[in-house]
Structures are given as structure tokens and as C-alpha cells.
Amino acid sequence: MADTPYLVALALIEQEGRRALPLAGRSQKEVAAEGEAPDELGRALVLELLLRVWQRSDAGLLKRAAAAESLLLVELPMERLPEDLPVLKAAWLNSGDAEVFRKGLQGMSPRAWTMAVEKFQPVSLTQLW
After folding, report:
1. What is the model's pLDDT at position 57?
2. Which of 23, 64, 88, 129 has its CA at a distance of 20 to 30 angstroms from the CA of residue 108?
3. Domain extents for the chain?
4. CA terminus-to-terminus distance, the chain
5. Local structure of residue 127 (DSSP, 8 states)
6. Residues 6+ positions from 51 with CB-CB distance below 8 Å
7. CA distance linking residue 30 with residue 50, whole number of Å
8. 115 pLDDT exceeds 60?
9. Taking all residues of the chain, what is their mean pLDDT, rounded to a whole number?
10. Does the pLDDT value for residue 1 go beyond 70?
11. Helix, strand, coil distribution of the chain in percent, nearest 5
12. Torsion of CA 57, 124, 23, 91, to 10 degrees
């Protein structure tokens, strides 16, 4: 289990002119094969995260902060969670530089996906790297 990467859903958002980066994560019991997405757990994490983001809308207007890459699902080695992810998150909250955030996340994560939905289609995961 220690070798199993952690799955994390991240939302890069702005609310009332302030950046926020809520996240939800869970360890994976089974890792999706190369070229495949962690469909069931990924969708569950993103749903949980989006419900929390939606609840935040009571406090003010929400806006995606990184266009189509504002909602991400990433696999992270467990050792990256306690130190590296909080540092990257704090840097993005301070700078708002989505490209620097993406590059930092890419250096930590072996795989990442964006999530999207189109009318009359199911939610789709698109691999970024």
C-alpha cells in the first residue's frame, strides 16, 4: 500500500478576488493501468470537491482561475503530500501563476487529468501528462 499513489482532486478558483485551492484526496486501492484513468475513484473525489466548492458559493461569486485546467485530478506519491504539495499550493495562492503551478505539479505527479462535461455526454477525464 505504501507504493500506491494518492489520488488528489484540485480546484484552482477565485472567490471575490481571492485565490483558493480546495482539494480532496484518497489513497487508491487499485491504480489504473498506464493510459487509463482512475474513473470511479476520480469521479467520486471530483464530485466531493465540487460539492464543497459549490457550498462555498454562498460566500460570494466563484470563478475558475486556470480555465480548462482549473479542475485537476492527479496521482501523487505519498511522500509528496505532507511537504511538497502544501508548498506548491501556498506558492500558487500567493502568485496566482497557473503555469508555474502546473510545472511544479508535473514535477511531483507522474499522471494528471482534467475533467469536463459536454451536453448529453458523460463526464470525461483527459490525461494531461
Report:
1. 94
2. 64
3. 6-127
4. 23
5. E
6. none
7. 23
8. yes
9. 91
10. no
11. 40, 30, 35
12. -100
Q: Is the pLDDT of residue 4 over 80?
A: no
Residue 28 pLDDT = 87
Residue 31 clears pLDDT 90, i.e. is over it: no
Rounded to whole angstroms, the Cα distance separating 51 from 64 reads: 15
Of 75, 71, 76, the C-alpha closest to 21 is 71
**CA-closest candidate to residue 81, choices 36, 39, 27:** 27
Q: Which of 73, 100, 89, 87 has the alpha carbon at shortest distance from 6?
A: 73
Retrieve residue 107's grid coordinates. 514535477
Kindly write down the DSSP assignment for every residue of 34-79, as one continuous string. TT---HHHHHHHHHHHHHHHHHHGGGS-EEESSGGGSEEEEEE-GG
